[in-house]
Amino acid sequence: MNTEDISSVRAELANKDWLVACLCAAWCDTCNFYRSSFDDLMSKHPDKCFAWIDIEDQAHLVDEVDIENFPTILIQHRDQVVFLGTVLPDAAQLQRLIQSMTEETPGQQVKRSAMNQAAPEGWNIRELILAS
Description:
This protein has 132 residues and is of the alpha+beta class. The protein contains 5 helices and 4 strands, in the order αβαβαββαα.
């Protein structure tokens, strides 16, 4: 699957409860370096939809979010954003983050940490992708 193609992401997301998105910029060398590691994680999580969202090319999806650093990772379960924050460009760290976020009891409020910033009230990137 092409994680950057919104049509492919939309089709994949329609059948999956989990979304793991990297919010990045094409001009960011760190993001470009990280891209292949991010895409490689898809094979370890076939039950999740992975998306590579360029904050400039797909600004309509992230207008409500203040992205200050890259890479910023979003993990969303159905309509609930369970993680939104900047992480090191390290696939092993993202793997541990995905595992910790998805092992929570469904419906349980995820504890916020310094890495996990609050998503704007009412913002739902899953809904925005499915509607685009």
